[in-house]
Write a structure and sequence with these properties.
The chain has 18 helices and 14 strands. With 448 residues, the chain is an alpha/beta fold. The strands form 3 sheets. Strands 2-1-6-7-3-4 form a 6-stranded mixed sheet, with helices on both faces. It has a 6-stranded mixed sheet with strand order 11-10-9-12-13-14, with helices on both faces. The protein is globular. The N terminus and C terminus are likely disordered. It comes from Marchantia polymorpha.
Length: 448
């Protein structure tokens, strides 16, 4: 079965998955599940109990986010993230001993554990992870992630709060105590963008999934802001104040909850870049990310030509000159998927007398490790962890910049969101005239 935007129903046991039946459900037959899905006879009672609980417990006080400057903006979002975390933990731990099993908050698991899934690059995976988290939040489900290919994400990041999430193998251990019914959600790459993400505004997801013991999410798409427009999830979105947030702000909150703590391995790897990691009023840090595409690191079409290097150099130079007028030192960090582009950046900045920094190591794509690297991994497990560390290092460093100039890439777009960094993006269609546009995450703008 191809990985289309369909749903697969599987039945599994404690030791391993025994597929008793596999039912491919086309998008045109969702009405079948709405009407006859397992456990729907008790759905209304569960809905009543959930609403009664929500109304009888606290919600987050509604207040607008202060966007007047970056400092107050981030402080407001950090405060809201802490409130969301506390309320979500209380809500998903609210089941009492008398709660019917079908009404207990179920696990929703983001799964990226197989080389055959092609979850995408780091940016795509983070988009899918954020969408799955908000899917869990808005359906009062317990969120887990199982990201182990080509290596465990836990080698680079630790969950900010162990009470909020844990590796999915923990979820699978308690799921396996009895026969469980799993509902698999596929939404990978652009082929599912228009049809399926549009329908997430309309689906009664709690009813669709009621009676299933767990939901497995295979997605790399950004649709968390679409979910809050769903009429069946609107009350919960308002309870968490999500209706007041932009797409970038929702992503920032997600990263505050899950990706603020680096492992000791990553801390050591980033030690040489301490000046880029640390905030300072005496310097201005300018980040540049150029995605060339055209099979430079993955099988994809071209994004930008090498001629775009000049566009980025000029923007970075102007920002440095602005900082110099304020007696600030200028630090430039460059990330790219093309070794040739990196060489051109070094040469151009050297001619201008501007120092440039970039991370060391091979340029790679985490969804496509080489066969030789996979074979080497069995001999030296650390090799693949080290091989892909540059991807995570570049992303983290981009989040620490004061300004970003980026190309059309989920990698840099998510970094801009995660750092709430003032950003301009080079439009693919306007590369010939170096057309950069503000990347703000405003409602209605084309973000992806």
């Amino acid at each position: 079965m191809t990985k289309t935007a369909g749903l697969v129903l599987k039945v599994a046991t404690v030791s391993k998955y025994f597929i008793i039946s596999t039912l491919a459900i086309s998008l045109s037959s969702y009405a079948y599940l709405f009407r006859y899905g397992p456990g729907n006879s008790s759905y209304d009672q569960c809905l009543h109990d959930t609403l009664r609980y929500s109304l009888s417990h606290d919600s987050i006080a509604e207040h607008p986010v202060d966007r007047s400057n970056r400092v107050s903006h981030v402080q407001d979002l950090d405060s809201l993230a802490a409130e969301i975390e506390a309320l979500y933990i209380r809500s998903t731990n609210s089941a009492s001993p008398s709660t019917p099993h079908a009404c207990i908050p179920k696990p929703i698991i983001f799964d990226c554990s197989s080389r055959f899934q092609e979850c995408g690059g780091l940016g795509d995976r983070l988009k899918g992870l954020a969408s799955t988290f908000y899917l869990a939040l808005l359906t009062n489900s317990r969120f887990y992630y199982h990201w182990t290919f080509p290596t465990d994400v836990g080698n680079y990041f630790m969950a900010s709060n162990s009470s909020l999430s844990s590796p999915a193998r923990t979820a699978r251990s308690f799921m396996g105590i009895q026969y469980v019914t799993m509902f698999e959600w596929w939404c990978m790459n652009w082929h599912c963008m228009v049809r399926d993400i549009r329908r997430t505004r309309e689906w009664n997801l709690p009813k669709l999934w009621h009676g299933y013991s767990s939901i497995i999410s295979h997605t790399n798409m950004a649709y968390w802001d679409v979910l809050i427009q769903n009429p069946f999830l609107g009350a919960t979105a308002r309870r968490y104040n999500l209706h007041l947030l932009r797409q970038d702000e929702m992503f920032y909150i997600f990263t505050r909850l899950f990706f603020t703590k680096m492992t000791s391995f990553m801390g050591l790897a980033l030690e040489p870049y301490r000046d880029l990691m640390s905030p300072s009023s005496d310097r201005v840090k300018v980040g540049v990310q150029l995605r060339i595409g055209n099979d430079t690191a993955w099988h994809e079409g071209p994004r930008h030509s090498l001629a775009a290097v000049g566009c980025f150099v000029e923007k970075a130079k102007l920002k440095c000159e602005e900082g110099n007028r304020q007696s600030k030192e200028c630090l430039i960090f460059v990330s790219t998927d093309s070794q040739r582009a990196l060489e051109l950046f070094r040469a151009r900045f050297k001619l201008l007398g501007i120092s440039m920094m970039a991370t060391d190591g091979p340029i790679s794509h985490i969804d496509k490790p080489s066969q030789s690297l996979i074979r080497q991994h069995f001999v030296d497990p650390q090799s693949i962890i080290t091989e892909h560390s540059r991807v995570f290092m570049d992303w983290i460093l981009l989040t620490k910049m004061d300004y970003l100039y980026i190309s059309r890439s989920g990698f840099s777009e998510t970094a801009a969101f995660a750092g709430m960094v003032p950003t301009e993006r080079l439009a693919v269609r306007d590369e010939y005239r170096c057309g950069f546009y503000p990347w703000t995450g405003e409602a209605g703008s084309k973000l992806w």
